[in-house]
Amino acid sequence: SSTSASSAISNWYEFDLINATRSRGFIQPKFGANYNVTENLNVFGNFAHVERFTDLGVYYNSGRLNPDAKDEISNQVEVGAGWTSRELSGKVNLYTMTWDNKAQRITDPSQAGQPGYDRNGNKTILVGTATYQGVELEFNSNLDWISPIKGFDIRGSATFSSNKWNSVLDEAKIDPISLKRYVFNAFGYNAAGARDTVFVDELAGTHVGGPPQMMLSFGTTWRYENFFVGVDANFYDNHYGLDGDTYARVLGEWNAAKTTFSYGYKQILQSRMILDAQMGYRYEMFGVRAQATLQVLNLLDENYFADIDNFGVIPGGLRAIRFNLGLSL
């Protein structure tokens, strides 16, 4: 007979755990003023100074403490005018917001697992200053004063904005460990569809990724006693989903033989208009108020992209039917 023996070698690793706290106080003043010019017209203005603790990912830095992390600071100004009457109510306002020391997640797979990065190469840093500016408009009106058919309401809103990176912090340009340029997004494309790394120092003057920078909506509802039916149209454009004005795969088509699929690259998602419809009935019985509503979302069953991230486009929902029943005492 024969015997054999084996041994396993265990490797032990020692890590320094972070035991650090951080605290500070700050003042966040907010001021607002309103003046009624006439019985119907008012003007207003608001100012706010906002501060918030930096993202914990910046401070704890995936195990490499960053005690010099700055907090995010914002100054926000809004001015506008409103109108209120029996026939029409509405508001228009202009706003501007600056965010200093704005935190953002960067992605560089080549640094995965390195000090300050997680296992996927992600890291949160303070990038720089971003400005959000725009104009907003909203209104609603009961048309009984002009319409021969009573019970019609109309409503609408519009948002036109410009959200951009103004500047980049010097410390966000070079990685102090590798001494290389900080990579913001390693998965970007150029207009030709080739991979094109976006560096943090290239962000200044480019758009901040986020929701569409043009949004329009219009809707109407007809009411007759306890019954109502309505439709809403929502239009979206100038949708820069990714920071840095990077290109992305947002277009594509098959060839005639269905053997090859070709991609198209743009910096923004395609514009889209989505129609929603609803109808319902309100009633009261035995002291209980109830409302039954039937909604049809994406009435025309449009195919569209609702958003985008570093992994690709996110499709919007196709036609959906929803029934709601609400009860209250």
Can you tell me about this structure?
The protein is mostly beta strands and 329 residues long. Helices cover 2% and strands 52% of the residues. The strands form 4 sheets. The protein has an 11-stranded antiparallel sheet with strand order 1-2-3-4-5-6-9-10-13-14-17, with no helix packed on it. Strands 7-8 form a two-stranded antiparallel ribbon. Strands 11-12 form a two-stranded antiparallel ribbon. The protein is globular, with a radius of gyration of 27 Å. The model has no long low-confidence stretch (mean pLDDT 91).
Strand and helix layout:
Blueprint: E1 30-36, E2 41-52, H1 56-60, E3 72-84, E4 88-107, E5 122-142, E6 152-168, E7 183-185, E8 198-199, E9 214-224, E10 227-237, E11 248-254, E12 261-266, E13 272-285, E14 288-297, E15 305-309, E16 312-315, E17 320-328
Antiparallel strand pairs: 1-2, 2-3, 3-4, 4-5, 5-6, 6-9, 7-8, 9-10, 10-13, 11-12, 13-14, 14-17, 15-16
Number of helices: 1
In order across it, which strands form the biggest sheet? 1-2-3-4-5-6-9-10-13-14-17
* Mean pLDDT over the full residue set: 91
- Counting DSSP E segments of at least 2 residues, the number of strands comes to 17
Give the topology string: H per helix, E per strand: EEHEEEEEEEEEEEEEEE
If you compute it from the alpha carbons, what radius of gyration comes out, rounded to the nearest whole angstrom?
27 Å
| Shape type | globular
**Low-pLDDT windows of residues:** none
